[in-house]
TrEMBL record:
This is Flavodoxin-like domain-containing protein. Signal peptide: none annotated. Belongs to the WrbA family. One of its GO terms (molecular function) is NAD(P)H dehydrogenase (quinone) activity. The lineage of its organism: Eukaryota, Metazoa, Spiralia, Gnathifera, Rotifera. Gene3D superfamilies: 3.40.50.360. InterPro entries: Flavodoxin/NO_synth, Flavoprotein-like_sf, Flavoprotein_WrbA-like, FMN_Rdtase-like_dom. Residues 8-195 form the Flavodoxin-like domain. NCBIfam families: flav_wrbA, PRK03767.1.
Length: 204
C-alpha cells in the first residue's frame, strides 16, 4: 500500500431521520480516527407525493447523492440503512443493482464495507438487514467488516437498544417516534472509529 491517507465514504438512506442521525455519528468516529471521510445519501426512488403521505423528513440539501461511479474512489464504505421487512430497502438495492459495470471490471474488488441500521423493534431484523447486503459485497469482492464486540455496551441488557456485532443500530418504534439514544449514537461513533483505524492499518 502507498501510505496515502485512506478515504471512507459513509453512504446512507433514511426516510424518517434515524439512520441519518446515526450516519453523522459514524462520520464523527471516522474523523476521530484520522481518516478522510465523506458523507453521501442514496437517491430516493419514491415520489414526493408518496413521501408526503408517509410523513418522511425532507432530504438534506448539503448531503450529496452518491453516484455509482463514485464507489470506485474510497478504500471503504459504511452503509446505513433502515430495514424493509428484515432486508435491504429498495433505494439502496437500486444503487447496488446499478453496479453491473463495476462488477464486470472488478472495480470494487478488495475494498472494505460495514453496515449500520435501524429497525422498528428489537426483533425487527437488524441482523438480517445487515446480512442482506453481504451477497452484494461477496459478488463485488468487497470485504465485510463487522463491529464485533469491540463496543462492550452491546452486552448491556439493562436498557433497550439496537446494534449488534453486525454493526451499530437503533430502534425507531413502529411509528418512528423513538430517536437514537446516547448509547446507540456512541456505538455508531465507535464503529466509525474502529473502521477508520482498520483502514489506516491496511494502507500502511
Amino acid at each position: 500500500m502507498s501510505g496515502k491517507t485512506p478515504l471512507v465514504y459513509v453512504i446512507y438512506y433514511s426516510t424518517f431521520g434515524h439512520v441519518e442521525k446515526m450516519a453523522h455519528h459514524v462520520v464523527k468516529g471516522v474523523e476521530r480516527s484520522g481518516v478522510d471521510v465523506k458523507l453521501f445519501r442514496v437517491a430516493e426512488t419514491l415520489t414526493e407525493d408518496i413521501l408526503k403521505k408517509m410523513k418522511a423528513i425532507p432530504k438534506p440539501s448539503d448531503v450529496p447523492v452518491i453516484k455509482t461511479e463514485q464507489l470506485t474512489e474510497p478504500d471503504g464504505f459504511l452503509f446505513g440503512l433502515p430495514t424493509r421487512f428484515g432486508t435491504t430497502p429498495a433505494q439502496l438495492k437500486a444503487l447496488f443493482d446499478s453496479c453491473g459495470s463495476l462488477w464486470l471490471s472488478g472495480a470494487l474488488y478488495g475494498k472494505f464495507a460495514g453496515t449500520f441500521f435501524s429497525t422498528a423493534t428489537q426483533g425487527g431484523g437488524q441482523e438480517t438487514t445487515a446480512l442482506s447486503c453481504v451477497p452484494f459485497f461477496v459478488h463485488q469482492g468487497i470485504r465485510y467488516v463487522p463491529l464485533g464486540y469491540k463496543y462492550p455496551k452491546i452486552n448491556n441488557n439493562e436498557v433497550v437498544h439496537g446494534g449488534s456485532p453486525w454493526g451499530a443500530g437503533t430502534l425507531a418504534n413502529p411509528d418512528g417516534s423513538r430517536q437514537p439514544t446516547e448509547l446507540e449514537l456512541e456505538m455508531a461513533e465507535i464503529q466509525g472509529f474502529e473502521f477508520g483505524n482498520l483502514m489506516k492499518q491496511i494502507k500502511k
